[in-house]
Amino acid sequence: xxxGNLSQYPFADILGISLDSEDDEKIVLRMKxxxxxxxGVRNSINGGILATYAEIAAHVAINSKILAGSEIKQTQDxxxxxxxxAVSDFxxxxxxVQRMGxxxxxxxxxxxxxxxxxxxxxxVTCSVGKID
Amino acid sequence: xxxxxxxxxxxxxxxxxxxxxxxxxxxxxxxxxxxxAKYSHCQTLAITTAVDLALVRAASTAIDHETEEMNxxxxxxxxxxKTPVGNAIVTAHVSGRGTNIAVVEVSITDANQTLFGLGRGxxxxxxxxxx
Lengths: 132, 131
Description:
CATH superfamily of chain A: Hotdog Thioesterase
Largest interface: A-B, 37 and 35 residues
Number of strands of chain A: 6
Mean pLDDT of chain B: 90
Distance between the termini of chain A: 29 Å
Oligomer: heterodimer
Radius of gyration of chain B: 15 Å
Strand order of the largest sheet of chain A: 1-2-4-5-6-3
CATH superfamily of chain B: Hotdog Thioesterase
Largest sheet of chain B: 6 strands, antiparallel
Strand content of chain A: 35-45%
Number of helices of chain B: 2
Distance between the termini of chain B: 21 Å
Low-confidence stretches of chain B: 1-8
């Protein structure tokens, strides 16, 4: 499986993030619990790391649909709602692109490895423009 | 005021992402985030984590550690409306406290002291069981 442009993201390796699957509907990333990403209450994955993970997942999802000659310029908005402590060994990120244009909006759900329990629901909007 | 050792569990997160604690007192916390000069489209990634760290730490300075416990971020949002230049400073202020929640507002400035991001979050606080 190719890396879904993860190699251009500086924290993907150290946070244990890899591409799990990719199809027309969604991108799924996988993050392995490790000594860096733990740091939340009840020995859970740190909430800030979960938000950054969602931001990376959104970027990868946008990059999978972006037109040739265009690139992500910057994240513009990010929101995260934490439903439960993320305590599983792997945290999956399901990213669905909802809109592609000069801004791109992606919804990202962070779940356990079986994709049964949702820990966090995120929405990420990025600006997209021509490559300089 | 929260003691630094209360936050030891996030030190590896901070080291890995280039985040540095500056201060935390009286409902306020401030962090510095290193610029990601080589990754122009990724400038906000570490800042996004720092926003949560700052709001948690600010909330921790506004609770009674004798009778209350930190219980996790409920939700937060951030808007980045300019491209930052150089290192970023993330400043969180507790703007409201209820029985079970603290509301925290976050501002983010760059090396030119230009405000480029604003956020707001809510943090859950619970009463200790022995109270």
